[in-house]
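Comment on both lines for my students:
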Amino acid sequence: MNSYVKQLIKLVLKYAFRVEVHGLANYTEKHEGTLIISNHLSLLDGIFLHFFLPGDSVFLVNRLTAEIWYFKPFLFFVKLLKVDDGKPIALKTAVSVLEKGDKIIVFPEGRVSTLGIPMKIYPGTAFIADKANATILPVAIEGLQYSFFSYQKHKLKRRFFPKVTLSILPAQKLATLTELAPRPRRAQATASLSKMMHEANFETIYSAKEKLFEAAIHASKRHGIFKRVLSDASGANLTYQSLFARSFILGKYISDATGSHENTIGILLPNTTAAAITFFGTQYAGKRSALLNFTAGLDGLSAACTLGEITTVITSKKFVEIANLSSTIKALRSRIHFIFLEDLREQITTLDKIIGYWKSFFPIAAYQKSNGGQTSSDCAVILFTSGSEGTPKGVALSHQNILSNYAQVQLLVDLNHTDKILNVLPIFHAFGLLGGFLLPLFKGTESLQYPSPLHYRKIPEICYAENITCLLGTNTFLSNYAKYAHSLDFYKLRYVLSGAEKLTESTRNTWINKFGISIFEGYGVTEASPALAINHPSSHQAGTVGQLLIKIESRITPVDGLLRGGLLSVKGPNIMMGYLNHQGTITPPSGIIGLGWYDTGDIVEINSDGYITILGRAKRFAKIGGEMVSLASIEQTVAARWPEGEHAAENTFDQEKGEQVVLVTTNEEVSRAGIASAMKGAGKPNLMVPKRVVLIKEIPYLGTGKIDHAAIKKKILL
């Protein structure tokens, strides 16, 4: 092609699509035989790669694709290497091209994406890279999925000239074992290539300089500022524009009322649109949002406010009344200033509304002017751990922590603007905050915020009436929803995500048999913002919690007395800044491995495919006669034998063997003899038979849906 014509076309594309190219230095490095791999978002991808990557490269394309009429004009501009499915000769030709030192561009997904997340990787690309020992240069395209040449017209708001970014990552080599047989070697090479593609896509989603409010603003630009993204049980709803306008109004009030001397604002609200406005109002004011657990009682709330140095809490008179918190608020008023949203509403003037409305159309400028100079590495959110096994801790999460976790999860969960999430998990719970509130907001997906997960009869009806497509829950909640739901209540659901506690086989099978829906189990901790691993439609194994998310490193430390698994430690961009201490500072994580590593406290196994099986909490093992016994395994065996009722195994002191196991149950038919028989039938040692069985009316639960083991030990066993 005439160089002048090429430059002219490039210039037109650059200004029409505001093209940015990052990482050109990675491209210009000298490499022999480079295989350039790219995600495939639209029919324009090849054009942009051709014009904005320096030099000439050969495009590897399917022969049938090359014959499609709308590809024909493109063929005048580029060099093609056509391949036929099932004919390895073309792949060998590609290998020879690379061995000569040339560059080949290929789309490993083999087709234009229809999901909005990375699709499957064809093994042919990995075969070429492995055989040629090629240098692999990942390139991530962002923006063209919003063009009219993408295949996601029903999922995204498309436009004529979306902003396009090309990110060129550092060159890599495939991680393969030469001693493997050909088939497993190709499988390993394909998995390695898939990881590279995910890492490249992660870089297009995650910006280390972005803050939470800015992420919401950028989402509004992608999906439309008048897109409805939040609603609640009262019928209230918010578009991006109304969310910003009201957050600006509230944020100014917070800033004026607290000044620069208060860094943290407590939020004591259920899942409502008001809670969303309050959250972003505190962010606009440049404050940390401390989300308080309103089920924690007076002692729990008092301890959280002391630990977080919280002297101002925003709540609602109506909520305080409904939740029976009046006495708690009264007891805390001597040292906590409570701001009630109802009082604030009366103080808002017409001028305040006009200014807030005006700012909402210039949100970036308004936010950057008023956020107190916060950076993305600053603490954005404070959450408090559930305290299911002891005293709750204050977890400090930065903007980077939360947004990196959002990017990690987004690569796996196919949500779009046609979906609707029902969030029943409280936003003071990390799973509810990210999965049910922030993730859909950043994805342009409407979420219905519901104030309580305990309405077992009503929530299935809401799913039916509101055409809910995605539901988050714990095993306890999901099990109870299934119990009371009609078989058609969940007819629209396409994603059910479970976390926070072990998903039982009983719950899994009930959902499959009654509704035809598979529950995808994930794994996370508050300290990881919270997601660490997720099963999802394109990659899952029943009985596991999925594979570790991209960019997360892991180490397993053996535990004395355990024959299987070990203590899981993790490191990654989503791992917390640290724990709050009483000196008002944040102590960074420092685990067994070293500084920056977080010890999860979970005993896990990771199989050869990278899937994680949680064997139990380290604290939920009893050491009996020198051997470690899993309390979770005891509970699972008992639940399989007596599915009716609830069961909790606890360890207590034993004079002879150091510790003993006590089973607490709501089923009066459970006995030691029956448990012994069940253990024998399951092939488990007699050591796992509890020494005592205690019958109680109900198992105590925390507001997060987890069993309150500390309460059991304190109130029942001691």
